[in-house]
Amino acid sequence: MIKLAIDAMGGDFAPEQIVKGINIAIKKHSDLELVLYGKPEEIKKYLTLNDRITIVDSPRVIDMGEHNPISEVRNNRDSSLVMAFRAVREKLVDGVVTAGPTQCVIAAAHVHIGRIKGMKRCALCPTLPTFKEGGTLMLDVGANTDIKPEHIAQYTQYANFYAQEVKGIKNPKIYLLNIGTEEGKGRELEQQTYELLKRLPINFCGNVESKEILTTDADIIVTDGFTGNVAMKAFEGTAKGMGALLKKEIKSSLGGMIGYLFMRKNLKRFQDHFSADKVGGATLFGVDGTVIKAHGSSNADAFSNAITLAYKAVKGDVVNKMKEFIENHPFEEVSNG
């Protein structure tokens, strides 16, 4: 039985959409048990009773606009987010899923769970809904804005494990996000990272430019947290803009409206393909436990998929496999080649 902690109060539409997502997920997986942290009276309004679901009373809720995440997660241990994370640390559960504020999630992971021994940095890794079947993993997208090449090399190895064990990709294609495809491009950070990635026992395929994110054959794209966050948000904004422009053009003429009647199924598939709801959320790599950060605006289907993402990560035993790898390949070896 796989047991997950759920922050039932985190997210823009909590607890309603979170709990409705829980109802969906518990039906999907017969070997899944969920512990919900939050306000019982609010949770029960939407919960379908199930003997594999437990509610733990958590009186506080972290605000989605919290400005001091480290202080909040250190000093308020009775919040639903912190209690769920501490359950992972205390080995009461196998992992945690939350749609709470990103910086609070990262802070809680460091303060209340801790990094894997030997792991120098954590990385936030979503799956981008690209043209490639199954999408493309990209990391880091916000956990670290100031980082060394060795750190990128290390969490690249984690992503390599993850792609194999969770997504079932035998030999993941890995690219470094850069301003050009030629070797030697970029800042000193990218140049040094490139040299390190070449020496690792992974399928490193070179540089990829941001204009190719949508069409690349990459299974994994790696970069620093600042660059990754900017690229991801530009990608998401472009996808939304394309959708809005398409709607505007359809409504602009009678011919467009008639054409829509014939193409609406195709357009619906197009919309679904680029929906972040299918992915569910981002995995926080490098933490000593499975942590999934669902989108703050998650609806029921999206949060259900985030739970499935955590379920698969636990089932793939990704954290323990990475621990074993780091033990056999210390950080100094990675950095010095």
Instruction: Tell me the overall shape.
Output: globular
Radius of gyration (Å) = 20 Å
| Biggest sheet: strand arrangement | 3-2-1-4-12-11-5
Beta strands, count: 12
Number of helices: 12
Residue share in β-strands: 15-25%
User: Structural class, please?
Assistant: alpha/beta
Structural account:
- The protein contains twelve helices and twelve strands.
- The model has no long low-confidence stretch (mean pLDDT 87).
- It starts with a strand and ends with a helix.
- The protein is 46% helix and 16% strand.
- The protein has 337 residues and is an alpha/beta fold.
Briefly characterize the structure.
The protein is an alpha/beta fold and 337 residues long.
Keywords:
337 residues; alpha/beta; 12 helices; 12 strands; 46% helix
Explain the layout of strands and helices.
Layout: E1 2-7, H1 16-28, E2 32-38, H2 40-43, E3 53-57, H3 69-75, H4 80-89, E4 95-98, H5 102-113, E5 123-125, E6 127-128, E7 136-139, H6 149-165, E8 173-177, H7 188-199, E9 203-208, E10 220-222, H8 225-251, H9 254-273, E11 281-285, E12 290-294, H10 300-315, H11 318-328, H12 331-336
Helix pairs in contact: 1-10, 3-5, 4-5, 6-7, 8-9
